[in-house]
Each structure stands twice: as structure tokens, then as C-alpha cells.
Amino acid sequence: MLMQLCALAGVICDVTLFPLDTLKTRLQSQHGFFQSGGFRYLYKGIGPVVLGSAPSAAIFFITYEGIKQYSQPNIPNQYHSIIHMIAASSSEITACLIRVPVEVIKQRKQALLSDSHRLRLRTLYRGYGSTVLRDLPFGVIQMPLWEHFKFYWTQQIQRDCTPMEGATCGAASVAISAAITTPLDVAKTRIMLSSTSAEKEEVKISIMLKDVYRDHGFKGLFAGFFPRVTGFTMGGFIFFGVYEQAREFCLSYLS
């Protein structure tokens, strides 16, 4: 049941906040905001997201919880943050196998590129390396922060977090992670929207960051910052709220 609710939460977040994601993609696009669609067709590309967000969210939390539950009982408390980082990293790499093709199709549709229906399998994984390089630090920051915020809060109030409090901790951790990793997201978006061959993608992420900084400066590296952080914060609150509520229900049901 926990897996199904995580999947449902992922779909709800992605569909509800999709217009913000579209605006972010267009702000980051090398083709320019208005040439990529501006404020028009904000739900362009929603189809692949509906199909891909559920399995991606489910796989992430199955992997994360599986590694955490298997490892934590055998590890001293002071090393639990390391377990959270390892679990988050493994979860991101696994989820990206589904997330990347969905992102490629979605972002090319969002930017109104006409070739999104003719992409080959190899092209669908353009940006896998850059997505992993974005999502690994995102997950490594987000999940330990979430666990730390919850631990700190339980120490202050001397009881377990409620689902609402867990959701607030999740939203805060997601906001910080999204803000820090925005330059990597800019590079990933431009790689996915690029028309060059997929084989060069792994080499291009550092070059892409340098090119963006050279052409647009610091501001370019943080293009789409506001819609990205806003969307992720709202999505984090919804997702972690559903997750905490489902986890609490499952634990009470099993006990």
C-alpha cells in the first residue's frame, strides 16, 4: 500500500505543478523563453509525465526504504546519515532509468520542439548522465536533511512527528536541495533540448555550464530558479505529507 500511495502522490505532484515546470524549462531553454512557448500551452508534454511519474516515485521510495531498513539496524546511530546518503544515491540512479526518457520527451514538448515523436531509444537517454549528476546531489542533500529536520523536531517536542510536520520538514529539505542544484538542472535541460548526438552528452555537462556562464553569467546558471524552487517546495509538501500519512497507517495496521 505504501508503494501505491507514493506512486499516487508522485502523479498528483507532477500533474498539479506541471505549469511551473513548463515555465522553468522554457526559462532555461537555449532557444529563449518566448520562442519556446512563453506562457502558452503550459500543459504541453503532460502525457509522458502521467505515465512515468508513478513508477519513478514508487521505485525511488522502495529502493530508499529497502536500503535504510536493511542497513540501519546494523549500523550505529551516528552513521545513519551516511546510510541515508547511500540510500538516496541508489534510489536516484534507479529511478532515473524511468525518469530520463520521460524528461526528454516532456521537455522537448514543453519547448515546442517538433521532433519529440521521432526520438530513438538512444536519444531518449540523452541526458542520463547529466540527470544523475543533478539528482545525486539533490537526493544526497534532500533525504538526509529531511531525516535530520524530523529528528531535530522530535527532540524539541519530545514525540514523533505528525504527517503534517513531516511534510513541512520535507518541503524545507526539498526547497534547499532544489535551490542548490539549479545550475545542474539548467545544464541538464539544455542537454536534453540539444540537437547534437547523445554520445557526447557525458562530456558536455561541464562545457554546458561554462557556456551558460560565459553567455549569461551567474543569472543564466540560475535560470528558472523561482518556478523550480516554488514547484519543488509545494510538491515536497504534498509528496512527503502523503508518504508520512501512508507510513503511519501501515505501521499502525501492521502493529
Write the layout of secondary structure elements.
Elements: H1 2-16, H2 18-28, H3 46-71, H4 80-110, H5 121-124, H6 128-157, H7 163-180, H8 182-193, H9 201-221, H10 225-254
Helix pairs in contact: 1-3, 1-10, 2-10, 3-4, 4-6, 6-7, 6-8, 7-10, 8-9
Q: How would you describe this protein?
A:
Keywords: Membrane, Repeat, Transmembrane, Transmembrane helix, Transport. Belongs to the mitochondrial carrier (TC 2.A.29) family. There is one protein chain. With 255 residues, this protein is mostly helical. The protein has a domain at 1-41 and 118-254: Mitochondrial carrier domain (Mitochondrial carrier fold). It is 78% helix and 0% strand. It contains ten helices and no strands. The longest helix has 31 residues, at 80-110. The protein is globular. The two termini are 15 Å apart. The mean pLDDT is 87.
In CATH, the homologous superfamily of the domain at 1-41 and 118-254 goes by the name: Mitochondrial carrier domain
Which architecture name of the domain at 1-41 and 118-254 does CATH use?
A: Alpha/alpha barrel
**Helix fraction?**
over 70%
**CATH class membership of the domain at 1-41 and 118-254:** Mainly Alpha
The mean pLDDT is 87
β-strand percent reads under 5%
The rough form would be described as: globular
Main pleated sheet: none
Would you tell me the structural class of the helices and strands?
mainly alpha
Give the end-to-end Cα distance, rounded to a whole number of Å.
15 Å
Strand segment tally: 0
Uncertain residue ranges: none
What is CATH's topology name of the domain at 1-41 and 118-254?
Mitochondrial carrier fold
- What string gives the helices and strands in order? HHHHHHHHHH
Rg over CA atoms, rounded to whole Å, is 18 Å
Number of helices: 10
Protein name: S-adenosylmethionine mitochondrial carrier protein
Keywords: Membrane, Repeat, Transmembrane, Transmembrane helix, Transport
Main location: membrane
Pfam family, one: Mito_carr
